[in-house]
Amino acid sequence: MIRFLKYTWFQVGSFGLLLALVPLVVTNRYYLNVMIFIGIHTLLVVGLNLLMGYAGQISLGHAAFFGLGAYTSGVLTATYKLSPWPAMVIAVVLTVAVALLVGVPALKLTGYYLAMATLGFGIIVYICFKELVWLTGGPSGLVGIPKLSIGTVVLDEPRTYYYLVWAITLGAIVLSLNIVDSRVGRALRAIHDSEPAARASGIYTARLKIWVFVVSAIYASVAGSLYAHFITFISPSSFDFMFSIKLVTMVVVGGMASIWGAVFGAATLTVLPEVLAVFHDFDIVIFGLILMVVMIFMPQGLTRGALDLWEKYRLQRDVAGGSLSGG
Amino acid sequence: MMVEEMNAPLLKADNLSKSFGGIHAVRQVSFEVPTGQIKGIIGPNGAGKTTLFNLITGFYAADAGAIYFNGRTLDGLVPHQVAERGVARTFQNVELFDRMTVLENVMVGRHPKSRAGFISAAFRLSHARREENNIINKATEILNFIGLSERAASPSTSLPFGLQRVLEIGRALATDPLLLLLDEPASGLNAGETRELGRLICRIRDSGITVVLVEHDMSLTMEVCDQILVMDYGRTLAEGSPRDIQQDPEVIAAYLGDEPLA
Amino acid sequence: MDLSSQILQYVISGITNGAIYAVIALGFTIIYNSTEVINFAQGEFVMLGGMAVIALDGNGHLPLGFSFLLAVLAVTLVGIALERFTIRPAKSSNPIALIIITVGASIFLRGLAMMFWGKDSLGLRAFTGSSPIHFGGATLIPQSLWVLGVTVVVMAALQFFYKHTITGKAMRACAFNRRAAGLVGIGVNRMVMVSFALSAAIGAAAGIVIVPITLCGYDVGIMLGLKGFCAAVLGGLGSSPGSILGGFLLGVLEALGAGLISSGFKDAIAFFVLLLVLFLRPSGLLGSKEVKRF
Q1: Which residues make beta-bridge pairs with B11?
Q2: Do A184 and B80 touch (CB under 8 A)?
Q3: Cβ contacts (< 8 Å) between C293 and chain A: which residues?
């Protein structure tokens, strides 16, 4: 067990070191911005993965929590001139309250019915962002969100913000790795594998599902606040149904129930649209095509799928090599 | 401890009834399980045996009647609360956690005996780490007891079916139960595995845990049980020692056909 | 206009929209019953129907009826292709994977539509005249009658298909119990394909009749699809009469809510109803299948 712990720390440590070195090599603002988005998406996906990958509960409305974080931070700081850090805390508290309000009735449902309930919730929140013009600025968005600062240092350079985002995201990854490999983490996985057996083993599954829903909502809320203070302008379209779907896809593409898979999924699906942008209007066609192909042929996600393909290739090569030497 | 309490049955079902739609799965069933015994419940398919287990463990609520465990009623409790009171169970179609190792499956069973929540797990607080070590020790102890310690790190799905049943019992034992309910533990096992299982069940009883088993396999039931309850169409048909049951004409007629039991 | 004629006006427009929701909900139901897949590309069938008929009508001098049939046929082929190339080869029956596949298909179709027809909303002439009919203080445009008429024809045709044709009966058997249907020799795969074809065809028909009223753009599919889906849940997922009831009810509720409360929140009403139904009565108004709740 001690060795395993060290192993995890080794992974986290080397990943952190790698991340710390990136801005020393990459000075291009555009690339740094993409890296910041990857960090924010990773935070979202790691949280969603606790809910979906580990506890096996679908959420098709996670963009709503991301949006709640972003809009609460945005409105409190831009309109009411509150300083960003307390605003972020208030955003988390508000998100927790909403997550409880929705989660308590919704998590009594399973499978498609839970998917539908979270979908409906997500769209209602999106419509509120759009229609509560006096509060959110409506479809044209909310402007004038200040940059974050630590003490007197304003984090207005991509490089400094990069470090902030990834420090928080890395922290969230560590917390998630700890949760997954604990009594709570086992209980979550138990719910996914067999809910009756989990209950018979003394797990209060109903409550645990609500807690993991709340935890994943907190991750999303913090990600939302970081997003708002980064681009300083938010509009409802960033928090629509398609974004919820994109988050689910990041979880699945990376591979369910794998924290590092979540990082990979977030990175892949953040970079992909940027790459596809060269195709202009073709980009969404290609994006849709990729979603379908990956899910049809590698439903366990790209990481697992690629490993399977590699295994297959090696087997075939070995067989071919064997017959060659035999003949 | 008072003498009355010592003699009080560990589990007592009083006039239990449960129906689904128009079907009476369990009809006015009463029985007692004394502490330290192995009680068998037999009956043809659809006799209401599994429903009885689901009533005791809180998966279903009874339409009428009451269940007393360790002197207190189980009425209104949901499964995890029943487990916390000290009732553990297995399932007819083995319900293991497929994506976990053998050891982890048993570790889940320690859930009701441990406390760590999200916060202490996320920050690896010292009491959570201590607790985790205790869980591992206890789970390892149980794997030794059921003879699976060499497979501790294997995925649970890699075990042959017979050992999966044993592992499920191990997970149930990890909750430190006073009462263990086994739902057809021998189904799908060969004769050798069944004998092995019988020995394990006796060792569990000898360690102080009361056992109730629902079973089709006559050899197992007759060999290990102290008392047998026979159910048919949701009702109690007979109750007594294995010897009495073997000779009960009503049981022979209703369930075993014309031939007496071997 | 006084309040009562205003309400009458809302109900009329609600019934018109509701008819479309009902047909889309039926499309969900047909596919759900044969595969247990929720096809998130359902709304794209409606969009494709609308876009196709606009393209056919604008291109030459084809009679509208002919364009109508041709558009339905084309979208039906799209439905068949969708089943053949995405649902059938899918290795997983995991709902999450299937949801993402159909969402991927929906994005793909939307993207294709945008490439072909651009980003502008397009319109179509009304089938027969456009002078409104007055009654009871409210007005009714003739196209609304076409919408209702086509909806009724679609429902009657489906009813006939399910009750009186061998394929229809086989599909009902599949919906009831796929394994048993397979055992008695029903080609379950073929039934799944037929269900996608049917669902695409009626979706396209709905898309075509509504175009003269609402216009059509490459991106109308998502909202229409999701609302049809709310209607299906409201009525009871898997129940055909439920889908029809749910569709009309949702249309009327939405129109009344938009008119009397707030038009901005019109779209939220459907989803609010969806949440209420799921939390209070997840099997829907007419659903019979037991919903998995703990």
Answers
A1: B33, B69
A2: no
A3: 108-110
